[in-house]
Please model this.
Amino acid sequence: MSKKNSIPKHIAIIMDGNGRWASKRGLDRSKGHLKGYENIKPNVIYAKKIGIKCITLFAFSTENWNRSSKEINFIFDLASKVIYEESKFLNKNKVRIIHLGSIDNLPEKMIDRIKKSEEMTKDNKDFTLAVAFNYGSRDEILRAVNKIIDSRINTQLSEEDFESFFMTNMLSNPDVVIRTGGEKRLSNFLLWQSAYSELIFFDKFWPDFETHDLDLVIDEYNNRIRNFGS
Ligand code: FPP
Model:
């Protein structure tokens, strides 16, 4: 297969390194999350401008509950800002917002806000911002299996049938998964869905990730040969 010149449809991002970004500057970890939050809008707007159709952000994993309650509350407030306060702006820009993850253990107010912004933006077809919040891939797969058991399906399933039980069922699989912050693992993020994704790692921390880096991602994507095992 030859090199191509195409824009990936779906990019998923593990926004890692907020805490280290702050510590390096002698700041509280919350300042890193704030900076990370502020970095979302410019990258989403740029992604949409260059023709990407979907960005999925890993914002809070099922493992992040181990953090201090102060840090958890801070991240929850920022998530509410993305999901709720920014939803009018995102709606105006024809962005559909969807939540990936479990609503178990989320505050009622947040669940209500998630539902409202998903409802308000549901007809936007140009671009999707999927926020993985209280998300874990193993949890998603296990929930799919349990739903199948509950629905008493007793026929053999195809991969497509199985995927239809996932939280990501209205999204295409990510063409690219980016992880910032220097670690080179998926950390329970979209494990099934990323089977054929290009994995691109950045040493820089998420607050330092710039729109220019998205251009580098696209160049790298185009330099890789995707043959899906054939
Ligand atoms: C990882 O960095 C980042 C997080 C766990 C939180 C990400 C959240 C935001 C950017 C704000 C909210 C955004 C949305 C879309 C809801 P880390 O804290 O693990 O950094 P470290 O590895 O340096 O400690």
